[in-house]
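Task 17 of the worksheet. Students: predict the tertiary structure of the chain below and write it out as structure tokens. Keep your answer in the requested format; marks are given for formatting as well as content.
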Amino acid sequence: MNSHQIEYKIYGDDMQFVEVELDPQETVVAEAGSLMMMEDGIGMETIFGDGSGGGGLMGKLFNAGKRVLTGESLFMTTFTNQAYGKKHVSFASPYPGKIIPMDLSQLGGKIICQKDAFLAAAKGVTVGIEFQRKIGTGFFGGEGFIMQKLEGDGLTFVHAGGTIHKKELLPGEVLRVDTGCLVAMTSSVNYDIEMVKGIKTALFGGEGLFFATLRGPGTVWVQSLPFSRLASRVFAAMPSRGGHSDEGSIARGIFNLLDGD
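Model answer:
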């Protein structure tokens, strides 16, 4: 294997974190801001790109540029066990949901996922971008024209909201999914965007105008609560600034404080 072989344990139910066990000189790469805690003897380093370790200066700059296209930070952080014995480092979920461990060596060496799903991975896993072939996917895909791709032969950890459902698609089997609910899929799945049929359904059905059409064979991971849906419901439930109801007074007070009132 080219990637570092790490071990892990996932704690919690709705607000999970993953504890990664590192042997001496083993390294895990994570998104900036995902660290929860780490033991003494682990060294941190901020790097350009995905930390896959190749391509020289131009390769690192190119990898960093690809991350900007996906809306992520220019930088990632590596955590290396610089001690003699085993050490542990933990990474937390950014919002309620589940952490999905994926062994890329058992998934064809490549996973395509929504751009904010990646949490951490063993050093050697490449975090890049995946361009969709059809222009309709780009404009109406919910997650945008560009999705992330994780390539390599090591462990990677993906986070998604709510309950996670893993579905195996047979050759030619079709599954239609709300664009925001699609978490990840193997590279063998054909992914396209389809418009909801019927003008009344599109305008008054309460759902989006488009959904993802996934055609097997392959594996698909779907989430029940996309963060965008959670955030929209929270903001919709916040009381207006001119209201007189005491309901939500604590939340309103915090909002007014942050707003400068």
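Marker's comment: The first helix runs from residue 56 to 69. Residues 137-144, 200-207 have pLDDT under 50 and may be disordered.
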